Amino acid sequence: MNDLLPSFQALLTPEGRALLDEVRGTAPADELAVATRLRRTHPPELVSAAIGQARLRQRAAAKFPAEDAERMFFTSNGVEQSTRAVVAAHRAARMRDMGVTSVADLCCGIGGDAIALARAGIRVLAVDRDPLTAAVARANAEALGLDGLIEVRETDVTEVDTTGYDAVFVDPARRGGRGRVFDPEAYSPPLSWAVAKALGAPRAALKIAPGIPHEAIPAEAEAEWISDGGDVKEAVLWFGTEPGLVRATLLPGPRTLLGRGLPDPAVRPVGRYLYEPDGAVIRAHLVAEVAEEVGGGLLDATIAYVTADALHPTPYATAYEITDQMPFNLKKLKALLRERQVGNLTVKKRGSAVEPEELRRKVKPQGPNAATVFLTRVAGAPTMLIGRPAR
Fold first, then answer.
1. How much is the pTM?
2. CA-CA distance, 188 to 258, in Å (whole number)?
3. What b/e string do you get for 122-161 counting C-beta neighbours within 10 Å, with b at 16 or more?
4. β partners of residue 344
5. Using CA atoms, how far apart are residues 196 and 214, in angstroms rounded to an integer?
6. pLDDT tens profile 18-77
7. Nearest 10 degrees: CA dihedral of 313, 317, 322, 326?
8. Is the Cβ–Cβ distance between 250 and 282 less than 8 Å?
């Protein structure tokens, strides 16, 4: 990656910045024509770097506010691995509310979390050992006018003295040469190193994959699962807060559901309503808390669908009104959908091997009406539930 450093540094020159302004918003189909024209008056390597950066900025707009993405700098890995801005802002707000005024951000990447922390008024030491990544983080702090609060240091995080900082934030790399890494000890640095670092700080937050097994969570940590718009984005281990606490946080909001150690809900017959818990709630193992809130039980002991007889609006689950229940049978489902003139069919599954696209292809829905079909199990039996979003 470091062979890209000179090209990136060239983008920070007046000529490079002017090129970035000129190629802003270039559509993929127009890149070749634009590059051919610009190479008549600019170095080819600089033109390629500018167009590549414009492409990365367009991708980054899915994670960062558009006005930030247009001014920031990115690497391909940086766009892929950086925290979504609303999630980083939530975490930074929690730290600020804890009284944190300074943070050592270890494995800072392109600086997305450091930016959120600085905007919360927190002084940040941002550390990354990769020269290009550190240079990008430094350029981003300057581009957003936050270089007075963010110091970027290019070094190995294991060599950084964090004494004197109120908190430590660690975002280990969870991708290797073969893609995503699932073993926490295969993170870079390993989770055990990050936990040891966290235990030596007044407060700490460790960003981890949301699929981490609960048994791998240290007893000293609070665990928070975060979703944005219904999509689970990450889990965070907090130290210096409330050990053993589990929470699910839904953005925007935030809305936070705290674990109370409830036993698993009882399995009960299908009621009028089905509740689909948010992914963060499921990952946090807080389905029981949702079931208690809506006065419901489970369709099946192994399935995270809650059913109830009454409608109780909750931000932690999406409610559907169930109109039909039948054993799994594609022929009968096709006949029912034809009778109801259902053309807009949403297929959801949990505990079924059937793929939604396969089912849609086989039943060939046609008509002006809409419906949702759930492929699941009810008390162990493969079942189809048909319904619609509750009003």
1. 0.90
2. 30
3. bbbbbbbebebbbbbbbbbbbbbebeebbebbbeebeebe
4. 370
5. 18
6. 999 999 988 999 999 999 999 999 999 999 999 999 999 999 999 999 999 999 999 999
7. -160
8. no
